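ok trying again, last paste got cut off:
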Amino acid sequence: CGHCKSLQPTWSKAASALKGVVNLGAVDAATEGPQMRIAASYGVEGFPTIQVFGKDKQNPEKYNGQRDLQSLIQTALDNVVKVVSAR
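nice, full thing came through this time. structure:
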């Protein structure tokens, strides 16, 4: 979709900036196949949907923040702190 395509460059930059610290992934859930089942299992209904898989990998948190580079990076780093603090 157009929203997904416009987010992709920012997502790639965030993934590069966070490499070795946080794993960012993407699933194309708009096409038929196993990726649609993965998305459905996490309640994805619209695109792009961003979810944060923190300590509990089975219950990700939906991300509703800004979709600019700095916001994505800061959210990822904030979640690293939450996971480490919970140990």
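cool. Residues 13 and 69 are 7 Å apart (CA to CA). The helical segments are 2-18, 34-41, 69-85.
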